[in-house]
Hints:
alpha+beta
Amino acid sequence: MSELLPRVVYQMCVHGGLIVGSYAKKLVGDIDEANDYDVLVPLQYWQTVCMLIPETARPNKFGGWRFMDEKGNEIDVWPGSLQEYLRDCKTKYGGAVYAVDYVHNVVYSSVVREL
């Protein structure tokens, strides 16, 4: 049975947000459990997506916001470039870094492959 995203995370994805962090690694099968939801929002979509952030959110270390949804899910959301994220991000789990476009079923990865 597939797991549904929290409502606000799905709404952010519909408006251009990308799932990153541990939940992206879970979606691609690299890990079994994820402890929160991280959403990277490309700059051109930030003005729309930021309207979904509740007033109770507090700043996070990525220049964005952290909040809990109505079901107790921890969500981090911040504006940024997909290219910079894939280039600069390090994962505590090791291996590749991923960004998942959940709506369009596309996975971006920091893995370099020979052609």
